[in-house]
Design goal:
This protein is mainly beta. It is built from no helices and eleven strands. Strands 2, 4, 5, 6, 9, 10 and 11 form a seven-stranded mixed sheet that branches. A four-stranded antiparallel sheet has the order 1-3-8-7, with no helix packed on it.
């Protein structure tokens, strides 16, 4: 049974930083990618950052230069370092891990950035 558990969300002032963590229990066969998505109220879920099994990364234009995705394979944990946060970054952030067969999602972590 694969489970993804996010942590590290919270309330921060604009310009501040947070680091999200996604701890993965269980093993995923033929993992292709790991990523962070977010969903703001009344908006569709959007990709924030992705890291592929080969190590390459991809970021949404809105977070480039401010957010960094990384992974610790020994700890089976995915991270998202978020710097220079803006009020428009306020959303529920979800961790996703995908194989060819299916995708696995965490329960989400609330990030609120006050102006």
């Amino acid at each position: 049974q694969v489970q993804l558990v996010e942590s590290g969300g919270g309330l921060v002032q604009a310009g501040g930083s947070l680091r999200l963590s996604c701890a993965v229990s269980g093993s995923i066969v033929r993992l292709i990618s790991m990523g962070w998505y977010r969903q703001a109220p009344e908006k569709e879920r959007e990709m924030v950052a992705t890291i592929f099994s080969g190590g390459s990364t991809n970021y949404a234009d809105s977070v480039k230069g401010r957010f960094t995705i990384s992974r610790d394979q020994a700890k089976n944990t995915l991270y998202l370092q978020m710097n220079s946060l803006k009020p428009e970054d306020t959303a529920v952030y979800y961790c996703k891990q995908a194989s060819r067969a299916r995708a696995y999602w965490g329960q989400g972590a609330q990030v609120t950035v006050s102006s």
